Amino acid sequence: VTDYLIVATDRVRVTHYVRKDARSWTLTDYLGEDETLTLSALDITLTLDDLYRKVVLPLPSGVLASTI
C-alpha cells in the first residue's frame, strides 16, 4: 500500500496518506471541491469534485432546503 485515502461523507474533505518508507507516512488534507490530488502508484489525478460528483451531502446546520 502506497496511498491511503479517507473520504468524508458529511462534507467535502479527503485525507491522503502517502507512504514515505516502511515506518512513515506523509499526510495531506484536501478541503475544497477544486483541489486536486494525485495517486502516483496508479498514475491518476483527481479533483475532489470528481470524487464527490454523485454524492449528496447533508445541508449545513441551520440551512433550510428551501433557501438553496
Provide key terms for this protein.
68 residues; mainly beta; three-stranded antiparallel beta sheet; two-stranded antiparallel ribbon; 6% helix
Structural features, described:
By secondary structure, the chain is mainly β. It has one domain (3-55). The chain is 6% helix and 41% strand. β4 and β5 (44-47) form a beta hairpin.
Draw up the topology in text.
Blueprint (H helix, E strand, L loop, with lengths): L2 E5 L6 E8 L2 E7 L5 E4 L4 E4 H4 L17
Antiparallel strand pairs: 1-2, 2-3, 4-5
Summarize the structure.
The chain is mainly β and 68 residues long. The protein has one domain. It contains one helix and five strands; from the N terminus they run βββββα.
Distance between the termini: 41 Å
Number of helices in the DSSP assignment: 1
Rounded mean pLDDT is 89
- Cα-based radius of gyration, to the nearest Å: 15 Å
Low-confidence stretches: none
